[in-house]
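User: what does the whole thing look like in 3D?
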Amino acid sequence: MVGGILELAARYRDAGADELVLYDITASPQGRSVDRSWVGAVAAMLDIPFCVAGGIGSVADAEAVLVAGADKISVNSPALQRPQLVDELARRFGSQCVVVGIDSLATPDGYRVQLHAGDATRTRDTGRATTDWVREAQQRGAGEIVLNCMSSDGVRNGYDIAQLRLVRSHCTVPLVASGGAGQAAHFAAVFTEAAVDAALAASVFHSGELEVAALKAWLRARHIEVRP
Amino acid sequence: MSDADVVIIESGGANLASLHHALLRLGARSRVSADPAVIAAAPRLLLPGVGAAADAMSRLRGHGLADLIRTLRQPLLGICLGMQLLYEHSEEGDTPGLGLLAGEVRRIPPAPGRPVPHMGWNTCRPLQGDPLFNGIGAADYFYFVHSYAAAVTDCCRASVDYGEAWCAVARRDNYCGVQFHPERSGRAGARLLRNFLES
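Assistant: Here's the predicted 3D structure for the full assembly of 427 residues, as structure tokens:
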């Protein structure tokens, strides 16, 4: 498993990825923290920033991951269950390394934040409006918001531009789009139409359908500034 | 007295592993220390820093390091907050700095399309030649994470545009600083660290 992570991290580093997010999406629902033995190994080989997400529920959890060499930690369900966690992390480590991940679903009542979205059997609606949580997370010290739009996640039909534009208007810290990337044009659309600071994708890269270097060349040719 | 090529000055902040690894990839051994004797004897020094300026300064003073750092003759590179501490003053917590670089560190004003913290990859505009920038040009990207930055003053060797021009690389004599994170800036960052190791 660790070998797999290192291999993948090296592949994306060499392909020109600007940042890696390493998720253990099943950690929180199972009530355990992320297995950290691999964090140090990833830190030793990466020369780009990386963020660890999953199961970080305390300052001590976060510290272990940061001491091992991660640049940022991302909190999602534990922050919903105890929002004070965001304040504690920001006070201890600074906002720049505190990312709040949000799983948001379009419902008849508007966009709502979902808890434990990593495990479909335990996912539930918090009843919170996504924009309310985005504002609160920033007030508590989040330095970055990753918005995962669940309706578009995994279907590869493009990012949820309408939702990201709405959240952008409530978000003065860096906003990262997540969920829906399926082709290069989806990245161009989310940068130009939703003004996000970064776009995250997983399956479309893992499958090899889209290659990071080729995607960046394609975006540059369309005058969207990306690091070569 | 020290078996390390580089001593990383302990100024608080949890993430020193990435610096250690970046140096190791260049074949340089490093150790973290707050011991004045180790710091005084070091061939080269890094002053990192993550977190708040006031905490870092009080930690340096608490270890008796603020005065020591001002008397060093060997190359010292401040990184991110570590660079900001080299200036006279920071707006962050109204904190007096080490006063080795002329100028003030101010909060970056947020604006639509320009979130703060400034977090991401940017190119730098070289203003004056500097050995740190050997082999590095205006097309190279560096990774920035900061909410405060120094104005462009005489000691600024390269600037970064984020709403206005801010200092990205500064130097006075053996003291230099970079606002970005060379340890997380890919090949360009590795080149800059190598330039520092060879300075």
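In plain terms: The first strand of chain A starts at residue 20 and ends at 23. Chain A is about 40% helix and 20% strand.
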